[in-house]
Write a structure and sequence with these properties.
Distance between the termini: 73 Å
Largest sheet: 12 strands, mixed
Shape: globular
Number of strands: 14
Structural class: mainly beta
Order of helices and strands: HEEEEEEEEEEEEEE
């Protein structure tokens, strides 16, 4: 009987000890919510920056990546609206033209929020397609990652047309751009 009582007490002590230690090992995660938008977004971008990368995501190794930054002219406070598009398309595609579905599957994908862990640095990075604001060339606020919808990119006579017709949770995100677009291939 005494052995049973001792074993029972040990099990209870271990359970209490483990649950107490569990709290010590918790790491406070800085989680970016999918959306903090309080209203629909609708703007026409005046400028676009387009960067092309080859096979940068391990989970999408048969895709190339186009990263577009669509921006407005800064307002009197120096703030500008920004639409970041993280686009995946079949390997070897030369331009970003196509119709992209927001999410994680298909041949033409406008990535929703994507969390990437870099084992080398131990850092967690966040990517994906989102609406935000910028100041002095740096994104300062992330308001809404795209959760559904589509992005359409076409061109005619060296002019590009970019239309974002999507949602960030329950709010609509509509962005339009028409004009030149230089495709940069960072080294």
């Amino acid at each position: 009987m005494r052995r049973l009582w001792i074993r029972g007490a040990m099990v209870v002590m271990m359970a209490l000890g483990l649950s107490a230690c569990e709290g010590w090992l918790d790491v406070e995660e800085m989680e970016q919510p999918i959306s903090t938008l309080t209203e629909n977004v609708n703007f026409t971008a005046e400028k676009v920056l387009c960067k092309r990368y080859d096979n940068i995501y391990a989970d999408y190794y048969r895709y190339d990546n186009f990263f577009l930054e669509l921006t407005t002219t800064p307002n009197e406070d120096g703030e500008q609206q920004v639409m970041i598009l993280d686009l995946l398309l079949p390997d070897g595609t030369a331009t970003p033209e196509g119709e992209y579905q927001v999410g994680y599957v298909g041949n033409y994908i406008a990535l929703s929020r994507l969390e990437l862990f870099d084992p080398g640095s131990g850092m967690l990075y966040m990517g994906g397609s989102y609406y935000g604001t910028a100041r002095e060339g740096f994104v300062t606020d992330y308001y809404g990652f795209l959760t559904e919808g589509k992005v359409i990119i076409s061109s005619l006579d060296d002019e590009y047309y970019v239309t974002v017709d999507a949602k960030s949770k329950e709010h609509k995100v509509y962005v339009y751009y028409h004009g030149p677009m230089e495709i940069i291939r960072p080294k």
